[in-house]
Amino acid sequence: MDPVSERLRRARTQRGWSQLRLVRELRKAAAKRGHQMPTDDSVKRRIASWENGHSVPDGFYGALLGDAYGASPHELGLEHDGREDAALLDASYPDSPDAAINTVDRPWSADLNRYEPLLQSEASEPAWNEASLRWLVAPEPAPRSGRPVGLRVGHGDVATVKTTADMFARLDDQFGGDHARRSVIQYLSTEVVPLLRGGYSDAVGRALYSTVAEATLLAGWMSYDACHHGLAQRYFLQALRLAQDANDRRLAGSILSAMSHQATFLGRYTEAATLARAALMGISAVATPTLRAQFHAMEARALARTGDVRGCEAALAAATRALEGRNSDDEPEWIAYFDEAELAAEAAHCFRDVNSARQAVAHAENAMSGSHVRSDFFATMVLADAHLRADDIEEACRVAADALDLGENLKSARCVSYLAEFRANLLAAGDNAVSQAFAEQVGEHRLWVAAAAGGLAARGVGRRCPRLFRRRPT
Fold first, then answer.
1. Domain boundary residue among 247, 264, 285?
2. Does the residue 447 lie in any domain?
């Protein structure tokens, strides 16, 4: 039987099509299925890889090829037995650097093709435990030099990735994770994967892995903000593995902290506390005051949700002491955002969750940075909820209205979930003139409409994100 590569090449040449013509036909097939495609150059590179036998089309592209050629997967040698789907949905920690590269490339491609099982997948509890343990006990990575052939990668390429990721991070902060998330994935899939598979010195390789880990962490945060939780977890896992191979323990600790944040949001409080503690333990030799403060704050967030008031307060006190000793010159630039305002926001969340409304209000009022739109939205909503828990409905509604104005341009399912929680608590407080006037005032606001439609899971069981911001084929 002819190899798949020969079948695919013959299917194209027998029709007299160039590779560029096939790109156009694939794009037509994708449009009919409601999918979007990467750039023409990216798809053309994939076609060349398939026809040269360097890779095999996954289930998404296999289906599009079948549509374009009017042939069955069997005729093209692309029988799909479900193994590709299983690999995409697997949340195991990668065994090696090469496995990390191959593993992250697949979900990037599937994400771009709006593969619903992946977009709607849930986070895996065992994956958090496995990843933190394997990172903690991993030996120092061996030198990495890339491949002897192919694209040569230098420090200038690494700097380009860093600058581009920083630009996307600013967009995420200002407009929410669902604003430019697909653009980030597009960039990683088309521009960064060739660098990872190129040739580089050990020094360049470690810098590249660290920078790509940071960019993949951003992709995870944006996916989490869009409430694609299983996908976000997989990006966090890939970022952790890349940081491990870069021997960047500080960044790896911050990635565990992000996992802890997500676990708390999903109601997995024990796992969240464990992840925060693993981050503290794993970077103890190289920890900076700001990093220690952040990890203690994540532990406090998890403990607050369990009702462990004493443990929560102890973790917050440790975070405060750590942050007081920071020296900005010694901190990684990517943790510079975590300052007194951020810690106040974390404390406000904690005291709200242990039903200490007065303390929640005091900390929330100190949590507005004025420079981080989404963070300020969260802090404002925590303040509104704290006023509501203190039975000050009028002030709660006034502050919530301020939050809605602040979040006018945010595309963030997490923001909607905060509003949904406030809305549920406001309804539970009973019908009155103040809440009626507030409902009329904000009734047409985009985020409020989404909150009303989305709902929220019962408190203590974890959050369910609104469906409004879940991307689906159109």
1. 247
2. yes
Backbone angles phi, psi at 122, to 5 degrees: -95, 160
Same domain for 105 and 56, yes or no, is no
Q: What CATH number has the domain bearing residue 12?
A: 1.10.260.40
Give the angle 360-363-368 at the CA atoms, nearest 5°.
120
In a domain, 449, yes or no: yes
- CA distances to 20, 22, 38, 65 from 42, in Å: 11, 13, 6, 16
How far from 55 is each of 4, 189, 190, CA to CA, in Å?
10, 15, 16
Q: Which domain does 447 fall in, by range? A: 352-474
Is the same domain home to 11 and 118?
Answer: no
Measured CA distances, 46 to 57, 62, 112, 153, 328 (Å): 8, 12, 14, 21, 44
- The tally of CA atoms less than 13 A away on the side-chain side of residue 136 is 17
Q: What is the DSSP string of 279-315?
A: HHHHTTTT--HHHHHHHHHHHHHHHHHHT-HHHHHHH
Tens of pLDDT, residues 339-384:
999 999 999 999 999 999 999 999 999 998 777 899 999 999 999 9
**Cα–chain center distance at 155:** 26
Residue 436 CB partners (closer than 8 Å, separation 6+): none
What 8-state DSSP symbol labels residue 328?
Answer: G
Pair 1, 102 in one domain: no
DSSP of 31-77:
HHHT-----HHHHHHHHHHHHTTS----HHHHHHHHHHHT--TTTTT
SS3 content of the chain, % helix, strand, coil (to 5): 70, 0, 30
Residue 346 placed within a domain: no
Contacts of 466 (CB under 8 A, 6+ apart): 227, 413, 416, 417, 420, 450, 451, 453, 454, 455
Q: What is the pTM of this model?
A: 0.80
pLDDT tens readout for residues 427-457:
999 889 999 999 999 999 999 999 988 654 3
Verify that 104 and 227 share a domain, yes or no.
yes
| Long-range contact set of residues 338-343: C-beta below 8 Å, sequence gap at least 24 | 338/290, 338/293, 338/294, 339/369, 340/366, 341/366, 341/367, 341/368, 341/369, 341/379, 342/367, 342/369, 342/375, 343/293, 343/297, 343/319
Total number of domains constituting the chain: 3
